[in-house]
Amino acid sequence: MVKSPATKDDAHALFHSLRSAYSATPTNLKIIDLYVVFAVSTALIQVVYMAIVGSFPFNSFLSGVLSCVGTAVLAVCLRIQVNKENKEFKDLPPERAFADFVLCNLVLHLVIMNFLG
Amino acid sequence: MKISPAEDSQAMARKVGIIAVLLAVASICEAVAIFHPISESHRSAALELFSPVAGSFSSLEEAYEALRTFEVLGIEKKPDVKDHTCNSVVDTLSLMSSNSRDLYHALRVNGLLKCEISNEALTGIVSRLKDAVKDATSLLDYYHSIGGLLLIKDQSSEVDVLLENADGTLRSIKALSQSDGRWRYSSSNPESSTRAAGLAFETISGVISLAASAIDETLIGTLKKDIMKLFDSIEKYDDGSYYFDDKHIDASGHQGPLSATSAVVRGLTAFASTSESLNIPEDKILGLARFFLGIGVPGNSKDLYYQIDTLSHLENNRVSVPLVLSLPATVLSLTSKDKLKVKVSTVLGSSAPPLSVKLMQVFSSGSKDASVLNKDLHFDPKEAIYSLDDLPEGVDIGEYVFAFEIVLSDPEYKRKFATGGRTKVPVHVTGVVKVDNAKAAVLEGDVVESEKKLDLPGKNDLALSANHLQKLRLSFMLTTPFGKPFKPHQALLKLRHETGVEHIFVVENSGRHFEITLDFLGLVEKFFYLSGQYNIDLTVGDAVMENSFLEPLGSVELDLPKAPEKATQPPPQAANPYLRYGPKAEIAHIFRAPEKRPPQEVSFAFLGLVLVPFLAFLVGLLRLGVNFKNFPTSAIPATFAILFHGGIAAVLILYVLFWLKLDLFTTLKTLGLIGIFLMFVGHRTLSHLASTSAKLKSA
Q1: pTM for the full predicted model
Q2: Which residue among B357, B545, B575, B670 is least crowded, i.e. fewest CB within 10 A of its CB?
Q3: Are residues B651 and B627 in the same domain?
Q4: What distance in Å separates residue A52's CA from the closest CA in chain B?
Q5: Where is the Ribophorin II second domain positioned along the sequence (chain B) (predicted)?
Q6: H/E run at residue B676
Q7: Are residues B181 and B204 in the same domain?
């Protein structure tokens, strides 16, 4: 299907606006976003590996993937809590949110290491 | 067709006969058994069972049992056994701490061995036993102490053993009795037993013979009544033996009918020896003797002792002495013209008083009636055997019950000896059965196609052939030595195929004539449609047939039609019965095939790939411009910050160690410790950071 020039331009314009809006986000949030992307991509690579070689030590596969996904989820939670524009968590100091993030990650990874086998 | 009166009465007689048979089976079943008196096999069993360990017995009680059994059976004691046992006897008698039970057993053994015990020692023991009688509370106390005193009385005539208060002692023993004739062991124990009753009778007889003054006659009268009461609870077996059994298990001593009956017989004979008139019916005495003879040769020493000791008491007792009628051989052969021999003796095998034995009746198996023969048997004094020269008329081969009666020559003896009226003994009469007129034939329809004569019970070699439309007929006649028809237990024809499949048929008879016809048309399916050569075997056998045989007759070549599709297969023949239990085929364990692992290069490639996003993350961080500006610079917060990061790093290293080699428990323990540290440090650091950013905000 050939995109009509109008839609092509619209897509470009949309992309550009998103990009510029994104650059306005504070750095710490960008760091967290980068971390999430890192975690999810690691998970994807593991899934591709499993697709190729089969899921023989299934527990290892699950622990690997769930570690990545889990830490991504926790990072998203951190982002929500740290984001200044989020009115719900106005009174929560970001250090506290970070401490929760660290603690939850440690517990997650204990379980993951146990399940890794 | 009119039924003649003779046939009519025959039919009636047959009906009555059948009813009589049914009734007779029950009555013939009872009291038909054979009892043998004590013999050499008992002696050899005694020698085997009572062998002392290292020259001495384990206890005086066992020593007494062994010595008494040897004495009754007439076996010589070894001198070293006597020395050892005498030492033990003397020791027990001189020990002040021996109770009446030990003294009793020691005195018993002394009575048999006649060890050297001084009169002074005996006097001392008498006074101890008399004290024991005064202080006795339970039946066994009385039994042992009175028994001991009685033994001393027998062993030494110089020592004074008479009891002063015999009446009182009797009354206290009698207080333990119960209304059903049984006795209790002590007033505190409500359980009564027959064995206790036997011990009580023995003890009371002892008291009566030890009494210094005459006993109250009424007491003795009640005692006689107690004995008769006890005999009401006697039990009976079908073969005519009587015995006593204890319902409850005894706390002391041997349990079971042997010990209970033995105790009662001892008590009974002891009591009878002290007083004249004790009226026990003679069939019960004979029944008790039969009970002890009926156990044959016991397998353990205690049972053998009970048997021998009781029989010796029965051998010469003052109530009535049982006489045993036995047959050395219960199988008589007509061919070798065996004579019927009968032995009559006492239970221990000693000779009986002069008597004559009559053969009263001969019952053939299953019939109740038999004519009374009243034949006297001839006595051979050299062998002490009564024999009959010829068997009565009409005694053909078969199973019979011979009824004998013992008649004592001297009528005085009738009261003294128990003969038991009619004694029934099972006897087998065997002989040679004539097999005549044996022939095998192949029939086509009803017409005989080929016939061969057979020589039975000799060797035969038939070679017949038949197809499925024909029949095979085998016939023969059986006659007893007296010419009567005979139906054996087994008359079987067996056909065995080459493959091993066998078929067995019963040969029916009518009177003397035995015949079987195998109609192959109907048997085709039974034979599994297997054609080929079948070996023929004929079995004719019976317990009373001396020439029972199982002979191969030859073979028949059978031509059967082919098996249809749905025919049953012949059963598989066991290849070899030994193979069934031989080793089976070896099973090689197949281990689970290990999962296919990917080639190492692929795994390493992906390891690298997985690390790529991490590197990309680091690069991205740098591009974003991360800095450590917020890291606290002053000393203490800095330390805490470093410790915080260090703590996290420690936890992560712990996790790696956990994956590599640690177990969960150590990990959790260490994690707990690091966690507490981390909490503290983290709290300090983060609160410091929070306060700095708050200051910045407010400023």
Answers
A1: 0.61
A2: B575
A3: yes
A4: 9
A5: 323-429
A6: helix B664-698
A7: yes
